[in-house]
Specification:
elongated
Amino acid sequence: METVVHKVSAAEPQSTVSKMKVRLKETFFPDDPFRCLEGQPMKKKWVLVAKYLFPILEWAPNYSLSLFKSDLIAGLTIASLAIPQGISYAKLADLPPIIGLYSSFVPPLVYSVLGSSRDLAVGPVSIASLLMGSMLRQVADPNAEPLFFLQLAFTATFFAGLFQASLGILRLGFIIDFLSKATLVGFMAGAAIIVSLQQLKNLFGIVHFTNQMGLVPVMSSIFHKTDEWSWQTVLMGICFLVFLLLARHITMRRPKLFWVSAGAPLASVILSTLIVFIFKAENHGISTIGQLKRGLNRPSWDKLLFDATYLRVVIKTGLVTGIISLTEGVAVGRTFASLKDYQVDGNKEMMAIGLMNIVGSCTSCYITTGAFSRSAVNHNAGCKTAMSNIVMAVTVMVALLLLMPLFVYTPNVVLGAIIIAAVAGLIDIPAAYHIWKMDKMDFLVCLCAFLGVIFISVEDGLAIAVCISIFRILLQTTRPKMVLLGNIHGTDIYRNVYQYKEAQRIPGFLILAMEAPINFANTTYLNERIRRWIEEEKVAEHKQTALQYVILDLSGVASVDTSGVAFLIDLRKSMEKRGLELIFVNPVGEVMEKLQRANEIHNFFGMDSLYLTVGEAVISLSSLVKLSP
């Protein structure tokens, strides 16, 4: 058969403005949300823009009674979970319990208008609550200065919402992708343990407890305060914790019984409140929530604190809690959207969650997002639209107006048990094992996040894991993978000789494949690595054929900068001094364009140095290979 050798050709060069336009569009507007506006009349355009900004306008006009029945059941179900969790998580953040209920009323209403997820159930979450409480305690004592602490919390929530909304508006959601799965698995597990340890204060009835979050100070505080332990509190705490975990286990084994774990927290609150009221247990060492103010959210925009002294702390707290809550909310929304086969716009979700927190900070709410546990209950309960959030909010409103006096006798120990049961699901041992089996470096990131959270602090543990992940990316960039290729006998296929045992080296050729962009960060390493390969080849030369050609397969090189082009020019000159010829195979897109431009200036290669495939290059050049004397 006659072999046809195809030559590489470049696409028609684009202007710099055109390339920048394409790059910016791919980065910030990959989905092109307003593409559908083209050719539409002005009135239709306004309607489409309004539907894009307010997703409620898409489903509300076609809403039906049958949909409402499903949403009503789902909304009442998640409300039964949101009320006890809202009170519990507010205490976790060292805020008054009523703030947790406020945060389960206004934010869901805002999200139902702006959010694109049908399944996301909005409210306070454990990790963000823990982060906010621990970070703000560094500058204020919630017990000594409750009003000041509350001001800091509202202000941090405002900045969290501002940051979240900005990411969505500027379409910079890719920033949260720096939180890898390994980072989140380790961070969530560590945070869950820290949250649980903090609740031992309520489970043992300890009054004087450490404000620190680390494992050592918490355990030290527990065993140095044995004189404050209350056996009545311990007994009640263990009983309700077993009940809650048992309910969760039943739901995990039989998902159709989702209402068991969903209703267990509220049932625990009602039952424990009755026990305390009937037996006057508050007189026997069991502490209770106390009086909660009846009424709806009060305006809090006058409580936002922009004092320069504390601005750095509230911005930092808002940034960290905003990223974590945003990551959880978007991930949960996308998870359940994939189960129901509909699309969730990540940028739209960021705007919705951000605006909801901005509004919340002005209406006595603290940081909220889509909670996984409540969203799972909402999904399993058969929700159809975001109306379930409205039903939940209305139910919480009724509780705020009518039921607050009933929470006077609710014991703190049961709230602690509810938190421990809720965060138990964040410890994902199978996911950690899977990461260990798949990638040891990722497992190191996971482990560092876990240990950092437990032994240092929640925010420092997260920072350590993110830094290790970024360092790994930098390492991959500065030390890109380059492989030695050989021919699979009987074919024109060339593969990694260390991966495929049947791949054989071709005498007279050194064939290398680059699998990363060539840029200023890795040119020095690439140059040194190629030189070492050539030296190794010289030492172990074949008896009959000396090395004559160095072939670089550039198929995996997506881009090259000016440093990369200079590296290729210098490499070719170096090869010529050694009596070798440098061959390029299949440079793509931008790489080919820049090589042509460089060739016009430096004239450093001819078209006979470019080939479409490694096989064609070897076939074309084999007849020119000289035997060793």
